[in-house]
Design the sequence.
């Protein structure tokens, strides 16, 4: 995406954000009225707003922001790239993601419960203790290089989930919904142990 204009080192209201712009090292004050952000790049920006619930993001790139504990519930994400973000404990429950990538994000205890995923990847993300319960998933989902220890996938059909390049010591899953889950041989041994199965 080639931005229409680049705005650098400015303090702005959320209502000043314009579609098609690149915002670099900007500080955004107040709460915005806008429910849709399209063709925007945020790079090293900080935000006073922490409630992004019910907001739609289309073709948005968002890099290097601190949004731990923010509310993104019931939000929509289309063709987005999110990288190097601090999203610890962020709430994405009941949201929709299509063709969206998270990379190098700190996301322990993030909540994606009852969300819909259609082509999503988490690359090199810390997802320790995160919640992926009761997901509806179409197309592929990948967790390459990500940490999933204590992540909760209960009530989620795991067919097509690729965990073989992720890391986890423990995992919460519904055994009856695990058919089709892709893991490596070491992870398989861990999962067998979690189910109380002994191999002699």
Sequence:
């Amino acid at each position: 995406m080639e931005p229409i204009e680049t705005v650098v080192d400015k303090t702005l209201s959320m209502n000043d954000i314009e579609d098609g712009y690149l915002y670099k090292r900007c500080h955004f004050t107040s709460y915005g009225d806008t429910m849709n952000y399209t063709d925007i790049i945020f790079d090293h920006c900080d935000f006073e707003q922490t409630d992004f619930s019910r907001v739609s993001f289309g073709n948005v790139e968002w890099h290097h922001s601190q949004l731990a504990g923010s509310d993104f519930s019931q939000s929509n994400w289309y063709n987005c790239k999110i990288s190097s973000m601090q999203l610890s404990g962020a709430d994405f429950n009941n949201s929709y993601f299509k063709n969206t990538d998270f990379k190098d994000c700190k996301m322990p205890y993030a909540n994606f419960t009852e969300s819909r995923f259609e082509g999503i990847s988490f690359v090199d993300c810390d997802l320790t203790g995160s919640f992926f319960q009761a997901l509806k998933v179409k197309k592929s989902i990948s967790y390459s290089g990500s940490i999933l220890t204590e992540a909760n996938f209960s009530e989620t059909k795991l067919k097509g989930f690729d965990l073989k390049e992720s890391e986890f010591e423990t995992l919460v899953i519904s055994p009856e919904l695990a058919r089709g889950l892709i893991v490596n041989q070491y992870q398989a041994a861990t999962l067998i142990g979690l189910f109380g199965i002994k191999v002699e």
Remarks:
- Residues 54-194 form a domain with the Pectate Lyase C-like fold (CATH 2.160.20.80).
